[in-house]
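Sanity check record (used in CI):
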Amino acid sequence: MAARARVLVVDDSPTMRGLIRAVLRSDPGIEVVGEAADAMEARSAIKRLNPDVITLDVEMPNMNGIEFLEKIMKLRPMPVIMVSTLTQRGAEATLAALEIGAFDCIGKPAPGDPRPFAELAETVKAAARSQRHLPDPVAAGQPAVAAPASATPSDYQPARKIIALGASTGGVEALIAVLTKFPANCPPTVITQHMPATFTKSFAERLNRHCAPQVKEAEDGDRLEIGRIYLAPGGDRHMEITNSASPRCTLIEGAPVNGHRPSVDVMFRSVAKLAGRKAVGVILTGMGRDGAAGLLEMKKAGASTIGQNEKSCVVYGMPRVAHEIGAVDCQFPLNQIGEEILKSTTTTSRKDRVA
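Expected output for Protein-glutamate methylesterase/protein-glutamine glutaminase:
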């Protein structure tokens, strides 16, 4: 029998600590070994209890969760799950935490929520199994986000292709690592990242500040253009790529697929149908299997397909399934994926260039 995941719960609200404790203790694979109301108590508890995973409130007195997370990642790296309010302020703080190295973020439940923290137990167990790979700049105390390309590489000419990326847990770090390698004239790029609805707009804005291409949260009808990156909005719709007169983002109603909406599979399948060999599909770190079947459809349609390798994944779930079913042409470490995408989308042939 596998050892239970040992968890330390850190939150200044006794009510919230009690709710998290009750949810986690209902899972036989988890043991709540301690609780703390602030960073000082948490620091002492970490030394005393040596937990496998920490759940950490973003907003706390004396030292907030972001400041405490930075200290944890520098001094004693371990899986940390941020617990945040699903607000604009909460989104900005949580995204900063994910860039620093938090394993994942979980939203605090709204009053009357019939299933509070429904995903927390599975996230905790995945965190306990994971290997926390910190980016070198963070470990060295440097900014987590790479500087954007200052100019388009003189030897890069974009081919008439569409780039499609899917990610889940660990995807914030992974997408930053990949997209900051892109030049300003990259091919049209579409992304589905599993993320709460209130977070995707903030994440797109953060990416836009750090990347050479323009990044935005996709809107229904957005035309795919060179030098533009479109992030599927979280919430109640999937994102497909369709073609009326030209390729566009289309937001559609539909039930969750693989437990997610938007779903990576839905996006990949639409790209396979629309673009075929004129596409590159990339599946990055994440729990579950969303995106694997859609990536296989892309490969069968002639697209180039890339998977993140196990060692560099926060969670080797989605890329593992894609690899096992034969959907991935090649696997690469995260720090090579951006360059490999560019190799697959550059051309010296004038007829293949994007106008």
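The chain has two domains: 5-135, 162-352. If this sentence no longer matches the regenerated tokens, the check is flagged for review.
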